[in-house]
Each structure stands twice: as structure tokens, then as C-alpha cells.
Write a structure and sequence with these properties.
The chain is an alpha+beta fold. It has 2 helices and 4 strands, in the order βββαβα. Bound molecules: zinc ion. Zinc ion binds next to loops.
Length: 99
């Protein structure tokens, strides 16, 4: 587990500290009590397409949450976000309603 919010692309691990990031918001099928979601603002132990990825858990009062999203994934590029989405779509037992 990271102690602080990771500043890396969650797909290719590129450092995103000073660069533009691309985000993919996701919501769970049931937005209650997924065992892997801890309310420490981000989680690091999700698996998508065989890769370990991390995601930000949206805060209860955040705009993302109010738009119906539970998690936000961050990427260094559109290509990474696109590859991630492709893998995620194959792994739909875990997620639904990808934006
Ligand atoms: Zn990347």
C-alpha cells in the first residue's frame, strides 16, 4: 500500500507528478461495501486485465460521487486509459457502467 496518493499512471506506472493526467470514472454495480474499497481515499489492490491498478475513491461530497461514480482511475495518456478501458470491459464481473 502507498502511504500517499500515488502520482503514477495506474496502468504503465509512468510518473504523472508534473504532467497532464487523464481520468476514467467508474461506478460499482452495487455501490455498497465492496470489500476492496476502504475509505482511505484511494485503493491499490484492484486487478484489471491481470494488472494491479490503483484508484481514487470518490469522496461522499465530491462532484464525481454526485455524478454517480465510485472510483476514478488516473492515467498518463489517452492510450493508457484506452487500454485500461478495453481490459475493464472484459472484466465486467467487477464493474459496470464505464464512462
Ligand atoms: Zn500510462
Amino acid at each position: 500500500m502507498y502511504k500517499e496518493m500515488p502520482t503514477k499512471c495506474c496502468w504503465c506506472r509512468n510518473d504523472t507528478t508534473d504532467s497532464e493526467v487523464f481520468t476514467v470514472p467508474v461506478k460499482f454495480k452495487k455501490d455498497t461495501d465492496h470489500p476492496q474499497v476502504k475509505l482511505n481515499r484511494y485503493i491499490t489492490d484492484l486487478k484489471v486485465g491481470g494488472k494491479k491498478v490503483w484508484a481514487i475513491v470518490t469522496g461522499l461530497n465530491s462532484e464525481a460521487k454526485q455524478a454517480g461514480n465510485d472510483l476514478i482511475f488516473m492515467f498518463c495518456s489517452k492510450d493508457c486509459a484506452y487500454e485500461f478501458k478495453e481490459s475493464l470491459e472484459e472484466d465486467m464481473k467487477f464493474y459496470s457502467d464505464l464512462f
